Amino acid sequence: MKIAVVAASGRAGKLITNEAVKRNHEVTAIVRHKNQTEASYVLQKDLYDLTYQDLKEFDIVVDAFGVWNPSDMDLHDSSLMHLADCLSGTSTKLFVVGGAGSLYIDSEHVKQLKDTPEFPEEAKPVAEGMVKALDHLKERGDAQWVYVSPAASFIADGVKTEDYTITDNEYVENKAGESKISYQDYALAFVDAVEADKYNQVQISIYQNA
């Protein structure tokens, strides 16, 4: 497939890019600055300057953009809506590196992980910003998208186990009572989901089995 990764030099974006390259997909890294990935093709451009013309030839566009400064939380929503606008009415599917705060903890889908007392206070601004963006994405019937949430504990320096499950938008713990996934396993499962070509306009999540 022809895959573009927005913010490809970020931590998650880089791993997803490199994994897709290893699987022989034609990958373009979209970056603002120097490319730090294994992608053979590079488009150096700001996310907000991207247009339909830039993205129309791709089968998949991966949105790995993220911000953590509390004053920038609206960028989660505006950036995602900009990419959805660029892909509106096309067959190109937008795969989003999402957050765990939006996972539901009840079968009625009323309460989300971010609403629990155990959710870290320092992570709530990011979670709220990402939930707002996801809520608006759910309203977009004009674009094809898949929102990929990690488990509750998203471990940057975690090891690659290759032992993970792709599930729906409900919070899940493994047999050890943990909800976790390493960035490396997340990247593997993310590309698995892209290759499966069976998800559309849904939120999915990934957790480590042990």
Automatic annotation (TrEMBL):
InterPro entries documented for this protein: NAD(P)-bd_dom, NAD(P)-bd_dom_sf, Polyketide_Oxido-like
Molecular function per GO: oxidoreductase activity, acting on the CH-NH group of donors, NAD or NADP as acceptor
Domain of life of the source: Bacteria
Residues annotated as signal peptide: none
Residue ranges occupied by any NAD(P)-binding domain in the UniProt entry: 8-195
Pfam families: NAD_binding_10
Protein name: NADH-flavin reductase
